[in-house]
User: Fold this.
Amino acid sequence: MYIEHFNLLARPFNLRPDPEYLFLSDHHSMALRMLEYGLFEQDGYTVITGEVGSGKTTLIRYLLNAVEDDYQIGLISNTHKSFGDLLHWVASAFGIRREKRTDAELYEAFIDFLVAGYEHGKRTLLIIDEAQNLDIESLEEIRLLSNINADGVLVLQLLMVGQPEFRELLQRRELRQVAQRISTHYHLEPLDLVSAVGYIRHRLLVAGATRPIFTEKAMRIVHECSGGVPRLINQICESAMVYAYAMDSHLVCAATVQNVMQDRKASLVLPLFAGGKASKNELRQSLRELEVSQ
Assistant:
């Protein structure tokens, strides 16, 4: 809707995870290096955690674009116990036929799949998303599956992705055998102000921007209101660009972002301020402080 208005090629703040828009902040760069180490060294489990919307999925998709030809990759995203038996989800993730097979037969079929991949020079990677939803029994089952080996080589690599609660789960005594197998772990923190400004500018540049669209004050307000969480930054920036378009403005200023935040807060459709709630007066005070500092 506003793409032509701002002379862009695409929407810069689409919420869909897109590796083309990956911005490697210091935290995301470190997480990527840890992922590469964990996968290429084949040394234990790899765990990535972070708040909702911190960019975990985008980071993993970026990495998988580089390794897809070398790996047999299976993804499990429905990790809640109510969705069924884990072994069946693992088989489904790798395209292994499940119908008319007992659990024992399905386990043997999975072993055959892993060994065949190993013999053809393929690595097998199982990605478990939303890992914080796993229960103790499922994690123990995953540990047993990861013990499968060929010629003394473990043939299944695990990448588990979850919210901060997953770190707490792994600290339970009952899961110490699982925790001891984690060789690589990184927790994605929210973006600081400098990184958030870089993130906004990066996404605009990838989308085809040839000039500044957000003022410095506007980007600082976006960072404060989002708590540095990339998904919230996207939501706020997307709305701010729509507001600017509706006002026939080619520049998103701090007042525009403030209007977005006030309207969103009034309608209760956007979680704001990772550290707590803020009033309209606090928003106005933040804007005044920014104006004084400029």
Remarks:
- Confidence is low (pLDDT under 50) at residues 273-280, 282-294.
- The longest helix spans residues 103-119.
